[in-house]
Structure formats: C-alpha cells, structure tokens
Amino acid sequence: MKNQGRFTVLNSFKKITGNGKIMKKMILLLSLVAVFSCKSNAQKTEQKKEYPVSKSDSQWKAELTEMQYYVLRQAGTERAFSSPLNKIYEPGTYVCAACETPLFESENKFDSGTGWPSFDREIEGNVEFSTDYKIGYARTEEHCANCGGHLGHVFNDGPRKTTGERHCINGAALKFIPANKTNN
Ligand SMILES: [Zn+2]
C-alpha cells in the first residue's frame, strides 16, 4: 500500500493529540501564527529606514503620476517596452523621477533586449540594494538611496566585458537629463 506510511504517521499523531478535531485546530493555530509572524517581520523592515527625502503616502500619490507611484512607492513593474527611455542612448544622466538624485549615466546603458532600460553599473552611493522574495526566489532589489523609491533589480547576466551586471530598471522610476542641458 502506497499510503500506509502516511496513515501510520497520522494515526500516531491522532494518538498524541487525542482526536482529529484537536489536530485540525492545532494546524489552524500554527498556520495563523506563521501568517502573523511573517506580517510583523515585513512591517519591521519597512519602518526601519528613514530616508533624507521622506514623504507621506498621500504626498507621493499627489506628486507622482499613477505609473511612477506604482513603481517607486509600491515596487511595481512597468510593462516591458512601455518606457520611452528604453531606446534612448544620447549622452546624459538618469535621475530619480521622485527626488531627482542622479542614479545612472548614459555611458553605462546598454540594450539588454528585455524591454527595460538596462545599465551595467549604478552611480555609486546613490542606489541602495536589498533582497526581495516577491516572486518566490531571492532577487537583489535596488532603490534610490535618497527617497527609498523602488527602481528595479540587479542580475548577473550583464555584459561580461564590463561589470557582468544587468541593472534592470523601470523607465517610470527615472527622468532623463540630456548632457547638453546639464552643461548650460
Ligand atoms: Zn529618489
């Protein structure tokens, strides 16, 4: 019998707990504990960091477009190939769409073919990194070090000739400042 082992375990568990009802209650209780502990951990990490630019959720909502708010404040992802910045290669600087901190330089931008603006490195010190498990496995998330706005993720399949990094960034999180305008 295939299930014999399972029944034996179940029966011995029933002997310990007395009957099935108590066991069900225990399982329910254990899963509730798991849900609550996950939630409180997540809240703790979110509240920990104070950024130089800190605004209330309603302030951000009022200042940003719907897509900027979704990406920067809710860690959302724009549709691939939807950002006009994806195909821009003119010299200039990419700044945070929320607080205008310079985050990436055009000389480090490359066409990854993914449909999202991609860079092989960030402007050091202006981007912070953390780990997220949003889609079931660990990814390195990156966000603006000045306002905490979510930008995208870093992967290790970037150009081998330079850093090997692929910073996969939502265009909605960025504003492009052409070089000739910053010189004036
Ligand atoms: Zn920012």
- Fraction of residues in H or I helices: 25-40%
CATH architecture grouping of the largest domain: Beta Complex
Largest sheet: 6 strands, antiparallel
In terms of quaternary structure, the protein is single chain
| Class from helix and strand fractions | alpha+beta
Report the top-level CATH class of the largest domain. Mainly Beta
Q: What radius of gyration results from the CA coordinates? A: 23 Å
Q: Strand-and-helix sequence, N→C?
A: HHHHEEEEEEEEEH
Assigned CATH superfamily of the largest domain: Peptide methionine sulfoxide reductase
Proportion in β-strands: 15-25%
Number of helices: 5
What does this molecule look like?
The protein is of the alpha+beta class and 184 residues long. It has two domains: 45 residues; 127 residues, Peptide methionine sulfoxide reductase (Metal Binding Protein, Guanine Nucleotide Exchange Factor, Chain A). It contains five helices and nine strands. The strands form two sheets. A six-stranded antiparallel β-sheet has the order 3-4-8-7-6-5, with no helix packed on it. Bound molecules: zinc ion. Zinc ion (ZN) binds next to loops.
